[in-house]
Design a protein that fits this description.
The chain is α/β, with parallel strands linked by helices and about 220 residues long. About 35% of the residues lie in helices and about 20% in strands. The chain has a 7-stranded mixed beta sheet with strand order 3-2-1-4-5-7-6, sandwiched between helices. α6 links the parallel β2 and β3. α1 packs antiparallel against α2. The radius of gyration is 19 Å and the shape is globular. The relative contact order is 0.12. The mean pLDDT is about 95.
Length: about 220
């Protein structure tokens, strides 16, 4: 006999079910990030938030956050995240009590993600900003950032050319991978050493590799 409150069939509106689940997880965990995900599900049902917050994406961002803390410290005046998508990495950094971050800016070339990123990070108020922009068109001196993050270097045709736009001495966190079979990955590297050479950083504080199921993610933390 099936209990009346336990339907054997999933609800027709999975967004409503996902929203209820996310709100419950936010209440249980007290996480402003999870609270933001619930708001995104409710306000932006077209957003692919499940892909943006899948276990592989989260694992790579946790790795970035923890190694940043270990190798470069906790205090930042302004962090700039390029290719920021829905702003999940800024939210993970702003929410982490181990960090002292005044502001985090998320830039993405896709205008459709700006409103989603603002919704997701609404709990952080003026500490978070989302903007639509091409990373090649930015004036990095005007950004006044003491940390520039780009976790999508496999999408950049000439990494060295882009890094030349960033003021010398600026701290950076970079990620790439060896997932050559993905058509949009136009600048993959086959090893951590190849990534070191490709980036040509003036200083490296951390270099590491994170094996995943289908590929290996590489990360450099240092200064241009």
């Amino acid at each position: 006999m099936t209990h009346a409150s336990h339907s054997p069939h999933p609800p027709a509106d999975w967004h409503e079910n996902a929203y209820d689940l996310a709100r419950g997880l936010a209440a249980y965990s007290g996480s402003r990030l999870v609270e933001g995900i619930a708001r995104v599900i409710a306000k932006h049902p077209e957003a692919n938030i499940a892909n943006a917050f899948n276990h592989k994406q989260v694992g790579c961002k946790i790795w970035a956050r923890d190694k940043l803390l270990e190798s470069a410290g906790a205090s930042y005046r302004r962090i700039v995240v390029l290719g920021g998508w829905y702003g999940i990495l800024p939210a993970m950094l702003l929410e982490d009590p181990r960090f002292d971050i005044e502001a985090a800016d998320s830039y993405d070339i896709d205008p459709a993600v700006e409103a989603v990123a603002r919704t997701l990070n609404a709990a952080f108020g003026d500490r978070f900003h989302a903007m639509t922009a091409d990373m090649y068109a930015l004036d990095y001196r005007d950004l006044n950032a003491d940390l520039v993050i780009n976790t999508s270097c496999e999408h950049i045709a000439d990494l060295g050319n882009w890094l030349s736009l960033v003021p010398r001495g600026t701290r950076v966190l970079l990620q790439s991978n060896d997932y050559f079979s993905e058509p949009t990955h136009i600048s993959c590297v086959s090893s951590l050493e190849e990534f070191r050479v490709q980036a040509g950083l003036a200083r490296i504080d951390f270099a590491g590799a994170l094996p995943m199921k289908k590929y290996t993610r590489f990360m450099l933390i240092g200064a241009v």
